[in-house]
Amino acid sequence: MTQPTDIRRVAPLHTALTLAANGVPPLPLRAGKVPFGNCRTCAKNACGGRPNMKTPGPCMCPGVCHAWAAATTDPHVLNSPQWAAAWRQAAAVGYHPGGAGLTVIGLDNAAAVAWARATLPATRTVPTTRGEHWIYQGVMQSANAVRPGVDIKSLMSYTRWLGSGSGTMAALPDAARALAVKEPSPARRAPQTVSAPLGGQDGECRHRAPVFLDRGIAMAEQQITGAREAVHATVYRTFLAVLSTHGRCGCLTDTHVAKLFTAAQAKGESPRHCMDAWTNARTTLGL
Question: How far is CA 190 from each of CA 184, 187, 193, 232, 274, rounded to the nearest angstrom?
Protein backbone atom coordinates (compact mmCIF):
# COMPACT_ATOMS: atom_id res chain seq x y z
CA MET A 1 0.00 0.00 0.00
CA THR A 2 1.26 3.47 -0.83
CA GLN A 3 2.16 5.43 2.28
CA PRO A 4 0.74 8.95 2.93
CA THR A 5 4.26 10.42 2.82
CA ASP A 6 4.67 9.06 -0.69
CA ILE A 7 1.38 10.63 -1.76
CA ARG A 8 2.49 14.01 -0.45
CA ARG A 9 5.76 13.63 -2.36
CA VAL A 10 4.28 12.44 -5.65
CA ALA A 11 1.55 15.08 -6.00
CA PRO A 12 3.81 18.18 -5.81
CA LEU A 13 6.54 16.47 -7.83
CA HIS A 14 4.09 15.49 -10.56
CA THR A 15 2.94 19.12 -10.79
CA ALA A 16 6.55 20.31 -10.85
CA LEU A 17 7.53 17.92 -13.64
CA THR A 18 4.52 19.00 -15.69
CA LEU A 19 5.49 22.66 -15.26
CA ALA A 20 9.12 21.95 -16.15
CA ALA A 21 8.07 20.12 -19.31
CA ASN A 22 6.23 23.29 -20.34
CA GLY A 23 9.20 25.59 -19.70
CA VAL A 24 8.09 26.85 -16.28
CA PRO A 25 10.81 26.39 -13.60
CA PRO A 26 9.24 25.07 -10.36
CA LEU A 27 10.48 24.72 -6.78
CA PRO A 28 8.99 23.16 -3.62
CA LEU A 29 7.48 25.42 -0.97
CA ARG A 30 7.07 24.78 2.73
CA ALA A 31 4.02 25.62 4.80
CA GLY A 32 3.40 29.33 4.68
CA LYS A 33 4.35 29.51 0.99
CA VAL A 34 8.04 29.97 1.81
CA PRO A 35 10.99 28.26 0.08
CA PHE A 36 13.33 25.80 1.73
CA GLY A 37 16.34 27.36 3.42
CA ASN A 38 19.94 27.04 2.33
CA CYS A 39 21.99 24.04 3.34
CA ARG A 40 24.85 24.46 5.83
CA THR A 41 27.39 24.88 3.05
CA CYS A 42 25.44 27.71 1.46
CA ALA A 43 24.18 29.38 4.65
CA LYS A 44 24.68 33.15 4.75
CA ASN A 45 25.89 33.01 1.13
CA ALA A 46 29.13 31.31 2.21
CA CYS A 47 29.15 29.45 -1.10
CA GLY A 48 29.55 32.70 -3.01
CA GLY A 49 26.23 32.78 -4.75
CA ARG A 50 24.28 30.96 -7.40
CA PRO A 51 21.87 33.67 -8.50
CA ASN A 52 20.40 34.85 -5.23
CA MET A 53 18.74 38.09 -4.29
CA LYS A 54 21.90 40.12 -4.77
CA THR A 55 24.94 38.36 -6.19
CA PRO A 56 25.30 35.68 -8.90
CA GLY A 57 27.90 33.06 -8.24
CA PRO A 58 29.26 29.65 -9.19
CA CYS A 59 27.43 27.57 -6.56
CA MET A 60 26.34 24.22 -7.96
CA CYS A 61 24.68 22.96 -4.77
CA PRO A 62 22.51 19.94 -5.66
CA GLY A 63 20.05 20.74 -2.88
CA VAL A 64 17.03 23.05 -2.76
CA CYS A 65 19.01 26.22 -2.02
CA HIS A 66 18.78 29.94 -2.73
CA ALA A 67 14.99 30.35 -2.80
CA TRP A 68 13.76 31.36 -6.28
CA ALA A 69 17.12 30.44 -7.81
CA ALA A 70 16.47 26.80 -6.96
CA ALA A 71 13.69 26.72 -9.56
CA THR A 72 14.68 24.55 -12.51
CA THR A 73 13.23 22.83 -15.56
CA ASP A 74 15.75 19.99 -15.34
CA PRO A 75 13.78 16.79 -14.53
CA HIS A 76 16.94 15.05 -13.29
CA VAL A 77 17.38 17.73 -10.60
CA LEU A 78 13.69 17.67 -9.68
CA ASN A 79 13.82 13.87 -9.34
CA SER A 80 17.18 13.79 -7.58
CA PRO A 81 17.72 12.20 -4.15
CA GLN A 82 18.85 15.60 -2.84
CA TRP A 83 15.38 17.02 -3.55
CA ALA A 84 13.41 14.01 -2.29
CA ALA A 85 13.09 15.22 1.31
CA ALA A 86 11.87 18.62 0.13
CA TRP A 87 9.12 17.06 -1.99
CA ARG A 88 8.04 14.89 0.97
CA GLN A 89 7.71 18.03 3.11
CA ALA A 90 6.37 20.32 0.40
CA ALA A 91 3.08 22.05 1.15
CA ALA A 92 2.83 23.60 -2.31
CA VAL A 93 4.66 24.13 -5.58
CA GLY A 94 6.12 27.50 -6.47
CA TYR A 95 7.65 28.76 -9.69
CA HIS A 96 9.94 31.50 -10.95
CA PRO A 97 7.83 33.65 -13.34
CA GLY A 98 10.81 35.52 -14.74
CA GLY A 99 12.49 32.22 -15.63
CA ALA A 100 9.48 31.41 -17.80
CA GLY A 101 9.38 34.87 -19.40
CA LEU A 102 6.33 35.85 -17.38
CA THR A 103 5.16 38.52 -14.94
CA VAL A 104 2.50 37.86 -12.30
CA ILE A 105 0.50 40.78 -10.93
CA GLY A 106 -0.73 39.61 -7.54
CA LEU A 107 -4.05 41.19 -6.52
CA ASP A 108 -4.75 40.47 -2.86
CA ASN A 109 -8.24 41.86 -2.38
CA ALA A 110 -11.40 42.88 -4.18
CA ALA A 111 -10.34 46.53 -4.43
CA ALA A 112 -7.07 45.55 -6.10
CA VAL A 113 -8.92 43.32 -8.56
CA ALA A 114 -11.32 46.15 -9.39
CA TRP A 115 -8.37 48.48 -9.96
CA ALA A 116 -6.72 45.98 -12.34
CA ARG A 117 -9.90 45.47 -14.33
CA ALA A 118 -10.22 49.21 -14.80
CA THR A 119 -6.53 49.89 -15.48
CA LEU A 120 -4.75 46.91 -17.04
CA PRO A 121 -5.48 44.98 -20.25
CA ALA A 122 -7.25 41.65 -19.82
CA THR A 123 -4.96 38.64 -19.66
CA ARG A 124 -4.78 35.13 -18.23
CA THR A 125 -6.29 35.14 -14.73
CA VAL A 126 -5.85 32.68 -11.87
CA PRO A 127 -8.13 32.83 -8.78
CA THR A 128 -6.36 32.99 -5.41
CA THR A 129 -7.61 32.70 -1.84
CA ARG A 130 -8.05 36.47 -1.49
CA GLY A 131 -8.03 37.78 -5.05
CA GLU A 132 -6.44 36.95 -8.39
CA HIS A 133 -3.14 36.52 -10.21
CA TRP A 134 -2.93 38.27 -13.60
CA ILE A 135 -0.24 36.70 -15.77
CA TYR A 136 1.42 38.58 -18.63
CA GLN A 137 3.97 37.57 -21.24
CA GLY A 138 7.18 39.51 -20.58
CA VAL A 139 9.52 40.15 -17.67
CA MET A 140 10.25 43.10 -15.43
CA GLN A 141 11.65 44.06 -12.04
CA SER A 142 9.77 42.42 -9.18
CA ALA A 143 8.32 44.69 -6.49
CA ASN A 144 6.04 44.31 -3.49
CA ALA A 145 3.27 46.67 -2.41
CA VAL A 146 3.45 48.85 -5.52
CA ARG A 147 -0.04 49.99 -4.54
CA PRO A 148 -2.52 48.73 -1.92
CA GLY A 149 -2.96 44.98 -2.36
CA VAL A 150 -0.77 44.73 -5.48
CA ASP A 151 2.55 42.86 -5.81
CA ILE A 152 4.65 42.13 -8.88
CA LYS A 153 6.43 38.78 -9.24
CA SER A 154 8.75 38.33 -12.20
CA LEU A 155 12.56 38.44 -12.23
CA MET A 156 14.38 37.20 -9.10
CA SER A 157 11.16 36.21 -7.38
CA TYR A 158 8.79 33.28 -6.95
CA THR A 159 5.09 32.77 -6.50
CA ARG A 160 2.81 29.84 -5.74
CA TRP A 161 1.47 27.73 -8.61
CA LEU A 162 -2.34 27.79 -8.43
CA GLY A 163 -3.17 26.37 -11.84
CA SER A 164 -3.03 27.56 -15.42
CA GLY A 165 -6.03 29.87 -15.08
CA SER A 166 -8.26 31.10 -17.88
CA GLY A 167 -8.12 33.67 -20.64
CA THR A 168 -5.59 34.60 -23.29
CA MET A 169 -2.24 35.82 -22.03
CA ALA A 170 -1.47 39.39 -23.10
CA ALA A 171 1.85 41.18 -23.49
CA LEU A 172 3.12 42.96 -20.39
CA PRO A 173 1.75 46.54 -20.60
CA ASP A 174 3.68 49.72 -19.87
CA ALA A 175 1.15 50.51 -17.14
CA ALA A 176 2.37 47.46 -15.21
CA ARG A 177 6.03 48.33 -15.71
CA ALA A 178 5.34 51.84 -14.44
CA LEU A 179 4.19 50.47 -11.09
CA ALA A 180 7.72 49.39 -10.18
CA VAL A 181 9.40 52.64 -11.21
CA LYS A 182 10.48 54.85 -8.34
CA GLU A 183 10.27 58.58 -8.79
CA PRO A 184 13.71 60.08 -9.40
CA SER A 185 14.82 63.16 -7.55
CA PRO A 186 14.22 66.24 -9.70
CA ALA A 187 17.44 67.61 -11.12
CA ARG A 188 16.20 71.16 -11.24
CA ARG A 189 13.20 73.28 -10.44
CA ALA A 190 10.56 72.81 -13.11
CA PRO A 191 8.21 75.55 -14.31
CA GLN A 192 4.92 75.73 -12.42
CA THR A 193 2.60 76.31 -15.33
CA VAL A 194 1.00 73.78 -17.63
CA SER A 195 1.19 74.52 -21.33
CA ALA A 196 0.09 71.77 -23.74
CA PRO A 197 2.72 69.33 -22.48
CA LEU A 198 2.13 66.69 -25.13
CA GLY A 199 0.36 68.46 -27.95
CA GLY A 200 3.30 68.00 -30.27
CA GLN A 201 3.29 64.19 -30.17
CA ASP A 202 2.35 62.63 -33.49
CA GLY A 203 1.94 58.94 -32.61
CA GLU A 204 -1.06 56.98 -33.83
CA CYS A 205 -4.10 57.34 -31.57
CA ARG A 206 -5.25 54.00 -30.17
CA HIS A 207 -8.16 55.33 -28.17
CA ARG A 208 -10.78 55.15 -30.95
CA ALA A 209 -13.19 57.27 -28.91
CA PRO A 210 -12.71 60.27 -26.59
CA VAL A 211 -14.60 58.40 -23.86
CA PHE A 212 -11.62 56.04 -23.45
CA LEU A 213 -9.32 58.91 -22.57
CA ASP A 214 -11.93 60.64 -20.39
CA ARG A 215 -12.51 57.43 -18.47
CA GLY A 216 -8.77 56.96 -17.98
CA ILE A 217 -8.36 60.48 -16.62
CA ALA A 218 -11.33 60.03 -14.28
CA MET A 219 -9.85 56.79 -12.95
CA ALA A 220 -6.48 58.47 -12.46
CA GLU A 221 -8.16 61.26 -10.47
CA GLN A 222 -9.86 58.65 -8.29
CA GLN A 223 -6.58 56.85 -7.73
CA ILE A 224 -4.91 60.04 -6.51
CA THR A 225 -7.90 61.10 -4.43
CA GLY A 226 -8.08 57.68 -2.79
CA ALA A 227 -4.43 57.65 -1.67
CA ARG A 228 -4.23 57.33 2.11
CA GLU A 229 -0.44 57.21 2.29
CA ALA A 230 2.63 57.73 0.08
CA VAL A 231 0.83 60.50 -1.79
CA HIS A 232 4.02 61.65 -3.56
CA ALA A 233 4.65 58.16 -4.95
CA THR A 234 1.00 57.67 -5.86
CA VAL A 235 0.90 60.92 -7.83
CA TYR A 236 4.07 60.03 -9.71
CA ARG A 237 2.96 56.48 -10.52
CA THR A 238 -0.44 57.74 -11.66
CA PHE A 239 1.14 60.33 -13.94
CA LEU A 240 3.45 57.62 -15.29
CA ALA A 241 0.55 55.26 -15.98
CA VAL A 242 -1.46 57.99 -17.77
CA LEU A 243 1.51 58.97 -19.91
CA SER A 244 2.42 55.38 -20.74
CA THR A 245 -1.10 54.85 -22.12
CA HIS A 246 -1.99 58.26 -23.56
CA GLY A 247 1.29 60.14 -23.88
CA ARG A 248 2.44 59.37 -27.40
CA CYS A 249 -0.55 60.20 -29.58
CA GLY A 250 -1.15 63.86 -28.72
CA CYS A 251 -4.62 63.37 -27.22
CA LEU A 252 -3.77 64.77 -23.80
CA THR A 253 -4.67 68.44 -23.43
CA ASP A 254 -4.15 71.13 -20.81
CA THR A 255 -7.63 70.33 -19.51
CA HIS A 256 -6.75 66.68 -18.87
CA VAL A 257 -3.47 67.54 -17.17
CA ALA A 258 -5.12 70.25 -15.07
CA LYS A 259 -7.60 67.68 -13.73
CA LEU A 260 -4.74 65.48 -12.58
CA PHE A 261 -2.89 68.40 -11.02
CA THR A 262 -6.04 69.57 -9.25
CA ALA A 263 -6.60 66.12 -7.76
CA ALA A 264 -2.97 65.99 -6.59
CA GLN A 265 -3.09 69.47 -5.06
CA ALA A 266 -6.30 68.55 -3.23
CA LYS A 267 -4.23 65.86 -1.48
CA GLY A 268 -1.69 68.48 -0.38
CA GLU A 269 0.78 68.40 -3.28
CA SER A 270 2.29 71.70 -4.37
CA PRO A 271 2.12 72.93 -7.98
CA ARG A 272 5.90 72.55 -8.12
CA HIS A 273 5.80 68.91 -7.09
CA CYS A 274 3.03 68.21 -9.58
CA MET A 275 5.08 69.65 -12.42
CA ASP A 276 8.24 67.91 -11.23
CA ALA A 277 6.44 64.58 -11.07
CA TRP A 278 4.95 65.12 -14.53
CA THR A 279 8.33 66.10 -15.98
CA ASN A 280 10.05 63.13 -14.36
CA ALA A 281 7.41 60.75 -15.68
CA ARG A 282 7.83 62.11 -19.21
CA THR A 283 11.60 61.78 -18.92
CA THR A 284 11.31 58.19 -17.71
CA LEU A 285 9.15 57.30 -20.72
CA GLY A 286 11.27 59.25 -23.17
CA LEU A 287 8.49 61.67 -24.11
Answer: 14, 9, 9, 16, 10
User: DSSP per residue over the chain, as a string?
Assistant: ---HHHHHHHHHHHHHHHHHHTT--EEEEETTTEEPPP-TTTGGGTT--SS-SS-------SSS-SGGGG----HHHHTSHHHHHHHHH-SEEEE-GGGGTEEEEEE-SHHHHHHHHHHS---EEEE-SSSEEEEEES--B-EEEEETTEEEEBBB--EE-----BSPPEEPPHHHHHHTPPPPPPSSPPPSS---TTTT--PPP--SSHHHHHHHHHHHHHHHHT--S-HHHHHHHHHHHHHHHHTTSS---HHHHHHHHHHHHHTT--HHHHHHHHHHHHHHHT-
Residue among 220, 24, 225, 268 nearest 119 (CA): 220
Q: Is pTM beyond 0.85 here?
A: no
Higher pLDDT pick, 124 / 212: 124
CA distance linking residue 205 with residue 213, whole number of Å: 11
**Which among 228, 232, 227, 216 is positioned nearest to 173, based on CA atoms?**
216
Q: What is the pLDDT of residues 35-73, one digit of tens each?
A: 998 888 888 777 766 544 444 445 778 889 888 888 999
